[in-house]
User: Fold this.
Amino acid sequence: MNELIAERQLMLRIIEKDAAALEQLYDQYERVIYAFAFRIVQDTMTAEEVVQELFLRIWNHAERYDGQQGKLMTWMFAITRNIAIDMLRRKSSRHAASPVTNEVIHLIPDEHISTEQEVENRWLGEKVSEALAELSEEQQIVVSSIYYQGMTQHEVSDAFKIPLGTVKSRVRLAMKQLQKRLGQLDLLRDTARKEETI
Amino acid sequence: MKDKHTTMSELVELYVLGGLSVSEIEDFEEHLTQCPECLEQVEQMRQVMDFLPMASEPITPPVGMKNRILGNVLNPEKTEAEAVHHSIDDQIDQTDQTDYPANSGTPRSRTRHYGRWRAVSAGLAAAVIAIGVYTAGLRGEIKELKEQTAIAEETEQQLQASKAETARLQDQLASALKPSQGLKLGEAVKLGEAVKLDPVSQDIVAQGLATIVIDSQGTHLVVQAEKLPELQDNEAFQVWLIKGEEKKNAGTFLARDGIGALYYTFEPGNYDTVAITVEPDAYGEQPRGKLILAAPMEGSSI
Assistant:
């Protein structure tokens, strides 16, 4: 709870255009946000653009964060995904789009895991990755195509030549399995939130 | 036949994951306003979603990203330097159909411009812009350096270094302006293709762009690079024009925040490669240091 209060106070300072508060927020979330953006756009410069757009929106519209609705990081991830998917779509409209079926990613190992938060993030990341890895290959493809590539169920159906109903059922089963797995780790809570947009 | 609630409840996971079309989202959200049961399911499933970003592989952000981003966010006024990057972006769009990063320096502040240059053969206009781009970039760098100098509470030594760098850039700017000053409408000018300078190994994140401009003053090489590694001691970046085993020194430059540029006038000599190395000092006639960026120049007029 203290964490939530601290986040709200930080955002209040940003609303008041406290540049130091924005820098604090940036330092706190740079790595996880950048990694997430890169996971979606698969390009270092575009990922940087995504992060910049995120912080630009936060700086200009911090008042839209409602601390009652949940964690700041969740809100930031949701906006990051929106921006990244939007950039992906624009990019694919510029170049002849081809489904990403075999992603080759050049990753730079993270050599600066020192803070408690980063250790916790790493642990969480491993657990979620394990849960995702337990999905069937078909489920992983469908979830990845929708979540990381911004495809709709119809686009997935067309791209992979599978019936729409199958797409739907794979997503349902995958999400329920993830829910069960994360629930076993006691990571899920009961409080409700609302949709985040900026 | 399924009732509406059953049909809609089957879309909860797709809705949360982001797999519905715009019209489907509208229908589903309308249903949510009337169905607490589905709303509750959405809230529960969204908790699962909250964890998916954490599964992203850790990756170290590019060097200098924080300064670039906070600088752009906190100072949204467009600088000349930003205008440079936009123009270069368009140039890249035109000359390179591969997925070269859509930005050669700082990310765009607000919107992307997808307009493409369509007139390489238009010669004059393109060349003027290319030269303008470069000189404006130098002006931007000088401006930044001056601002830094004004506010710096650093040591006298650092202050002197900044002044020296400003003077160097001003010299470069003065020399870069020469060809553009000499240009006249109708003068025969040719802008060569911009080629992407690629890192020579996976541990190098630097990227660059090399452009050839030909006018009545001669043939000029414009090199811009970013994400350059930090230099130590007397190290300098050195540009080489290579023809087989022959390596011609095309000048040295330093970088600030990992960004550097060079303008070099030379005699065409069928060079096949342009490369950038990190040299122990700026005085070598042959490469001694580590190669970081290179690009073939086949088909160019150099």
Observations:
- Residues 124-151 of chain B form the longest helix (28 residues).
